[in-house]
Design brief:
binds phosphoric acid mono(formamide)ester; five-stranded parallel β-sheet; binds norvaline
Length: 329
Amino acid sequence: MNFYGRDFLTLLDYTPEEIAYLIDLAAELKAKKKAGIAHDTLRGKNIALIFEKTSTRTRCSFEVAANDLGMCSTYLDPSASQIGKKESIADTARVLSGMFDGIEYRGFGQEIVEELAKYSSVPVWNGLTNEYHPTQILADFLTIKEHFGKLRGLNFVYMGDARYNMGNSLMIGCAKMGLNFTACAPAKYFPDEALIEKCREFASVSGATLTFTENVDEAVKGADVIYTDIWVSMGEPAQVWEQRINELLPYQVNKATMDKTGKATIFMHCLPSYHDHKTVIGKEIGEKFGLDALEVTDEVFESEASVVFKEAENRMHTIKAVMAATLTK
Ligand code: CP
Ligand code: NVA
C-alpha cells in the first residue's frame, strides 16, 4: 500500500484495504499518544490549513495532530488572505506548494478542493466540502470499531438529510467497509442516484446492503448505530429551516427512536448539534418553532448510548493518520 504524496479528497479514491489501514494506523497513533510515546516523525514539515467555513473539531484536529507529528501549521482564514478574491485556487495551490508539505481545505463545492489538488504538488486533504467529509468517516469508523470490535456486518442507520456531505460520505464508507447502510428520510433527502449506483458496486464486493426508506420503524429495527447530522448545513440559507423542520422532524432521533431498535444501539453525530437551547441558533430556531431540540433530543445526546465525544476525539487521531500516511515515504 502506498499513500505517500497522495491527496485525500473523497473515500471514493481509497480502497477498503486502504481505509482499514488508515483506521488501524489511527488506533496505533492514539495508543502511542495515550502512552506518552513521542511520534514526531514529521519534524521540520509545515502544513497550511484553509478554512472557508467555520470549524472547531477539524481545525483543532489538524493543528494538534500536526504538532504531535512535529510539524508546524499555518491557519488561513480566507477573509484575511488573498484566496478567491485576489488569487485563484490554482495560483494559491502553486504558491502554497512552494512553502508547505501538505494543504488542508474546508469549503464549498468539491470541485474547489479538486482544483486545489490538481495544481498542488503536495498532498491536499479535504476538511469538508458540500459533497464530502472523508476525514469524519475515518473517525466515525474508528469509534465504531472501538465499540463493537468490528465494522463488517453492522447495521448503520443514517437519519435526516442524507444527500449532503455526511450522508454521502457515510454511504460510501459503509458500502466499502461492509456495514449495512440505511438512509431514513423523505425520499427527496436520499443521496444522488449516480452516487448510490457507485455505492451499489462497492456493496456488491463488501457484502453490505443499501436501503433507502421513509419508514422510521422499518429503518431502525436491528440498528447497531443510529447517526444523524444537523438539518441545515454550513453555507445553506437560514430560510430553509422551516421546510427542513416540517419535513425532517419525524426523523428526529429521540428516545422512542432508540427504543425501537431492539438492540444496544449507539448514537453518533459528527457535531456540532442542536440538542438544546444552549447555542444561539439552537435557541433561536427552537423558540421560533416551539422545539426543545432539533435533529436529536438532549435525552439521547446525553444518554449512555451516545458516543459523540469519543467520536470527536477520534477526529484528531484519524486526521493524524491521514497526514502521517500521505507525508511519510
Ligand atoms: N464534525 C466537524 O467537522 O466539526 P467542525 O465543523 O467543528 O470541524
Ligand atoms: N453537514 C454539516 C456537517 C458539519 C460537520 C455541514 O456541512 O455543516
